[in-house]
């Protein structure tokens, strides 16, 4: 439920922020700085070090995922800045559905359980509730 609310409330909050400071690039940069600080703090508290031990392949996929996620966030902020929130929020809300579908097709070793499907549907329903309200 919390994930659904965050995904539903984030685009309208981003729209308000972009009305005050209309720069999708800075919105993305500030969001990533804050996210990185949280991740680094949690790593430091859990393990006593900021560095994570990972294989070369693991670091490669982590980097590729981070770059892809950063570009998608930048595109989302640009869309929120330039388009109506009632169009952008539903488009952003469907990505969990796409993620589950692509996982089912491409990651044969990952089992798509009823819990995963329910969580995905709850996320999309949460965005719909935010838009209706």
Account of the protein in words:
By secondary structure, the protein is mostly helical. The protein has one domain (2-132). The chain has six helices and no strands. The chain has helices at 2-20, 24-47, 56-82, 85-93, 95-106, 114-132. Helix 1 packs across helix 6 (114-132) and helix 2 runs antiparallel to helix 3 (56-82). The chain is globular. 14% of the residues are buried. The mean pLDDT is 79.
Quick overview of this protein structure:
By secondary structure, this protein is mostly helical. The chain has helices at 2-20, 24-47, 56-82, 85-93, 95-106, 114-132. It has one domain (2-132).
From the structure above, extract its key features.
133 residues, mainly alpha, 6 helices
